[in-house]
Amino acid sequence: MRLGLFGSANAPRGAPSAEAVQGYRDYTETCIEAEALGFHASFLVEHHFTGMGQVSATLTLQQWVAARTSTLRLGTAVLVLPWHNPVLLAEQVATVDLLSGGRLDLGIGRGYRWSEFRGFGLPPEEAADRFEETLDVLLRALTSDARFSHQGQYWTFRDILVEPPPAQRPHPPVWMAAAGEASARAVAARGFNLLLDQFASPAKLRNLIAAYRTEAAARGHPADPLRIAVARNIRLADTADAIASARAAQREQHAGMLALSRGPAGRAGQRSHILGYAETLEATLEHALIGPPEAIAAGLETLRDAGVAYVLVNAGRAPRETLRRLAREVMPAFGH
Amino acid sequence: MRLGLFGSANAPRGAPSAEAVQGYRDYTETCIEAEALGFHASFLVEHHFTGMGQVSATLTLQQWVAARTSTLRLGTAVLVLPWHNPVLLAEQVATVDLLSGGRLDLGIGRGYRWSEFRGFGLPPEEAADRFEETLDVLLRALTSDARFSHQGQYWTFRDILVEPPPAQRPHPPVWMAAAGEASARAVAARGFNLLLDQFASPAKLRNLIAAYRTEAAARGHPADPLRIAVARNIRLADTADAIASARAAQREQHAGMLALSRGPAGRAGQRSHILGYAETLEATLEHALIGPPEAIAAGLETLRDAGVAYVLVNAGRAPRETLRRLAREVMPAFGH
């Protein structure tokens, strides 16, 4: 089983610079250590306006990590395409991919946080159309060696050749999330890789993976299980007290995510990518792997039995001890 | 006298990845060596759609260099504000500034190349207004610890707090170019640093510097000569043949810049930032410093006598030998 990192980093306002940077430095050091421990990739979020300093310039931070590592893949999970000029984004994507020696994994999405649509002055109703148009131009910009023009609903470009080219040709692997079988099939149909979330049960994962792989094979796209990465909240905890405390920390993290994704009370159309899957906050913990090494190993075995070959570990705000113990006490049983 | 580098890097399409990346790697190695040789900064261009692979994602490349250096300042010369979403740009600026330990020099401009306006689908007539609005939001995004909203002609943002904060407070130094005394005064009035071009004569530089410093002092802004950087084409050449060949290379570089900035023949409103200063291509070489070390030293002395304290060396596509010889054979006479 392959393990990666579902990374995060915080650099909030209101602190002196030396403190603000610490979260980014910790993330960098975590990535350097994760590479040495045998982790395959670090996928990093993109968020805006949170007030808690979540990573915003995701590719810019990953470029720093790229310069400090040598084999770790640098993922995004996910770049929210509706915020971006597709040409400027393609140039950044290619620049990171080129300098990192082809280590970029390009996770993309439509966005779901009400506060971000409001912040950027964009109606959430436009998200799907903006996503499609931006993706179309982005891939063309990354791949085309000939000049092209684009006249769309949101963007106009004339007679452009986008440079630099990426290192990975025709373009870095694209990853998209899917929460249901229809969307897993749609990701397969595009020929993209699949990101699955930390709330799905092993039984649900089995169905999503089957749907993806069947559709990919039918379309003639690669259906390798390593093209599917499953996020999982994992915290090593050895005693009942430590387990209770880890569960509380995990619950608090989910409550924070939920608050950020919600619009004002009663606003129609608000979306939550958490409570879409679970009735209560407590239920969001159901498929987290929290416990001693043998419990984590058992959880990973269950995932493996469901067809999962690649797990992205979300180990919370201070992940290094969890990553070390995973490497030392859990991964050897999985061939590492 | 302080010396910096006016850097460039090329990663064109049409080559295999391993070749495409070489220009960026050479630029990185040049910066690492320039730092060791005592150069203060490297300022890097932003250009798009050139077909010759000029740097497009300037901050993304400079972030790589930031991770590989420790004291060199990372400059932009210039980021063209009308191309950018001011919030996404502020996030990148702050991320580079934060991780580099406050080493970013933020050169900004309005844009002048017809092919870039056309490529981005923007009328050149909007450049000045877009520049002002983007600058306004950019500086507010970098400096504000409180949420704010913006409703302008081109951009709308609601209730945003932009993170991370930059390391340099209130924001990284802003540099702007000026070609005449009125615009030098305008840069001083904004409290920004001044970039002067490679075509201006020492006599003209003296007037521009005086205009800037007088206005800065009158406004209560710092008027330190190190807040003015003067670009200069410099090539070390010891023999008549080498000098002729260096002049030819310099002329060819100017011809390429000119072709890129021009619109189609006869198009009204086309601008050239080269032939604005010189009647002919040959005349663009008039203030280049091309020759043996003693000629370069004499040229720098003339600049110093004109009030220039900070020179940005543009040494062409293969600058390392020139930088080494400057450090070894010229800079000692200037207190290095």
Please outline the helices and strands.
Two copies of one chain form a homodimer.
Chain A: E1 2-7, H1 17-20, H2 22-37, E2 41-44, H3 58-68, E3 73-76, E4 79-80, H4 86-99, E5 104-109, H5 114-119, H6 127-143, E6 148-151, E7 156-160, E8 174-177, H7 181-190, E9 193-196, H8 202-219, E10 228-236, H9 240-261, E11 289-291, H10 293-305, E12 310-314, H11 320-330
Parallel strand pairs in A: 1-2, 1-12, 2-3, 3-5, 4-5, 5-8, 8-9, 9-10, 10-11, 10-12
Antiparallel strand pairs in A: 6-7
Helix pairs in contact in A: 2-3, 2-11, 3-4, 4-6, 7-8, 10-11
Short description:
Two copies of one chain form a homodimer. Chain A has helices at residues 17-20, 22-37, 58-68, 86-99, 114-119, 127-143, 181-190, 202-219, 240-261, 293-305, 320-330; strands at residues 2-7, 41-44, 73-76, 79-80, 104-109, 148-151, 156-160, 174-177, 193-196, 228-236, 289-291, 310-314. The first copy, chain A, is an alpha/beta fold and 336 residues long.
